[in-house]
Structure formats: C-alpha cells, structure tokens
Amino acid sequence: MRFDLLTIFPGFFLSPLEYGILRRARTSGQVEVATHDLRDFTHDRHRTVDDRPFGGGEGMVLKAEPIFEAFATLGVAAKKSETRIVRL
C-alpha cells in the first residue's frame, strides 16, 4: 500500500513514521510512505501555496495550482478506480 502525503511541512512527518506500527509496516514492505512539499510545485519566488479566500473574510486557503501539479507529478488520475484520495 502506498501513501503520498502532500504538505507544506514534510519534516513534521519524519518522526511519527519512525515508530510503532508504522515503522514495522514500512520496514516489512507492507506500506510505502512518501512526503511531498507543496512548495516544490509553485512557480513564484516566494513559493506561495496559500491565498486569501474568494469573497474576502478571515483566514487563508490553499491554492489549487500546486495541488493539481503535485497530483500530475504523482501520476494520480481521477478515473483510476484503485486510487483513493483522502483530504484532511
């Protein structure tokens, strides 16, 4: 089973993946986990991945462009039945 984590904090996941059940699953080859920095898929000099919400208001939202480019790089197609996308 393969997991690809898209995040702006790839270093955050290094420690949790090295302990317990996840470590055993990774070392036995049952699970493959890769982290991908969303900032690698941006094209501006500030590597911006977030923007203000449409229509104003408080907070920030992730831009769609880096996410779509990351999916394209990973070879994820919307029509593949064996691919599952989980958003948190």
- N-to-C series of helices and strands: EHEEEH
Radius of gyration: 15 Å
Mean of residue pLDDT values: 84
Strands ordered across the widest β-sheet: 1-2
Number of helices: 2
Class per helix and strand makeup: alpha+beta
Helical amount among residues, as a percent range?
10-25%
Q: What is the molecular shape? A: elongated
Largest β sheet strand count, sense and barrel closure = 2 strands, parallel
Strand count: 4
Strand content: 15-25%
User: Which regions contain 5 or more consecutive residues with pLDDT less than 50?
Assistant: none
Q: What is the CA-CA span between the terminal residues?
A: 19 Å
How would you describe this protein?
By secondary structure, this protein is an alpha+beta fold. Helices cover 22% and strands 18% of the residues. The protein has a two-stranded parallel ribbon. A two-stranded antiparallel ribbon has the order 3-4. Strand 1 (2-7), helix 1 (20-27) and strand 2 form a beta-alpha-beta unit. The protein is elongated and about 45 Å long.
Explain briefly what this protein structure is.
With 88 residues, this protein is of the alpha+beta class.
Which features would summarize this protein structure in a list?
88 residues, two-stranded antiparallel ribbon, single chain, alpha+beta, 4 strands, two-stranded parallel sheet
What is the strand and helix layout of this fold?
Elements lengths: L1 E6 L12 H8 L4 E6 L12 E2 L9 E2 L1 H11 L14
Parallel strand pairs: 1-2
Antiparallel strand pairs: 3-4
